[in-house]
Amino acid sequence: MRPTLNILGDEMINRILDEAMRIMAEDGMEIRGPGLRQRLLDSGLKTDTSGKRILFPAEVVKRAIASAPKSFTLYTRDGLPHAEIGGNNVHYVPGSSGLKILDHRTQQTRLSDSTDFIEYARLCDGLEHIAYLATAFSTNKDIESQVSDAWRLYMTLTTSRKPVVSGAFGEHGVTRMSEMMQLFRHDRAELIAKPMSIFTITATGNFRYGEDSCQNLLDCVEAGIPVEIVPVTLMGLIAPVTLVGALVFHMVDTLTGLTMSQIVRPGAPVLIGGAPATFHMKSASSPMAAIEAQHLNVAYVAIAKKLGAARGARRRDLRVRARHARFRADIQPAQAGVRQRGLWPVSAFRARDPGAR
Q: For position 336, what pLDDT does the model report?
């Protein structure tokens, strides 16, 4: 028997969803990607009076929620079922897109390179309780940024058989990454039937999806790659400082992403995710381990469960936190029933002697 945690009642969840859908229907979302914007207009959606924002009526959103799968399976590189994303399953995976690493030998923060990444992937491939991998940090010491997203995926695919959480760094990065994964399947249809990755789509904030996020979502959904909608809900800066207000903003972003994915391809697998943080005005920092951010994590998971949607949670701490804060930040979402929990790798793990080749 596993203990559970829930901080929202059904009445409050319904009020938050009603307010989020009201904003989507009356104020809409700025969709900056021309390709996705045209697909939405072709589906019958309207714009506001300015012509800049797409309006999402409540009935369209509810229809999208109903068409999104309640669960889906991730497969290994070899095409074997590996992780069921759904039900009350909780999967711990590394975090993603770190800019630097903390070297466990020197205790110094530095840029990472490809050797660091290969050793990280080898280690996590052998860890039983790391369900699948992520393209966890950027190898920006030895690889050009224009190809670093594909390079990280290449190193993961050639090092581990486990599925992977990844994503593109630019507007047109998904296509080449999809083609890389298709090398491990007979054809595109098999890649859709047996997905080996989840790609992250980040809402820009302030009720806006930028060009990169729009094109990435469109390309992923058409290629059959499951997506996770991950708004960086920064409480007190680009979202209200209150829990309920921030939840409304968070759900506007995630429900918009979910709705767009279902308009492009009904039945496309999608997770409701998030990377909430608070804005610390004195230090101008955004701690993700703050208790307010953890409340938001647990709360949006409760809303996703109410909707019956798959859900994930991200954590991208750059340094080791106090043990209590770290335990709280990792265990609370699991108790709430999050299906994918991102853990940040805090050091450059070395699997062998650094002088060995």
A: 54
Residue type, 219: D
Sign of the alpha-carbon dihedral angle for 296, 301, 307, 312: positive
Beta strand 133-134 with 164-166 is: parallel
Residue 4 lies in a domain: no
Antiparallel, parallel or unpaired: β 101-102 and 109-110: antiparallel
Burial of 189 (0-12, 13-18, 19+ CB in 10 A): exposed
357 within a domain of the structure (yes/no): no
Sequence-distant (6+) residues with CB within 8 A of 230 are 200, 201, 202, 203, 273, 274, 275, 312, 314
Query: Which amino acid is located at 325 in the chain?
Result: A
Does 353 map to a domain?
Answer: no
Q: What is the CATH number of the domain that holds 92?
A: 3.20.20.480
DSSP SS3 for 328: helix
pTM of the full structure: 0.85
DSSP code string of 250-312:
HHHHHHHHHHHHHHHSTT--EEE----EE-BTTTTB--SSSHHHHHHHHHHHHHHHHHT-EEE
pLDDT digits (tens, 9 = 90+) for 290-326: 888 889 999 999 999 888 866 555 543 333 333 334 4
pLDDT digits (tens, 9 = 90+) for 195-223: 999 999 998 888 999 999 999 999 999 99
Check residue 313 and give its pLDDT.
Answer: 56
Alpha-carbon distance of 57 to 55, in angstroms, equals 6
Task: List the domain range (segments joined by +) for residue 253.
Answer: 10-343
Q: Look at the chain and report how many structural domains it folds into.
A: 1
* Residue 58 lies inside a defined structural domain of this protein: yes
pLDDT digits over 221-256, tens only?
A: 999 999 999 999 999 998 999 999 999 999 999 999
- Stated as kind and residue range, the H or E segment containing 182 is helix 174-182
Distance of CA 47 to the CA centre of its chain: 27
What's the chain's Rg over C-alpha atoms? 20
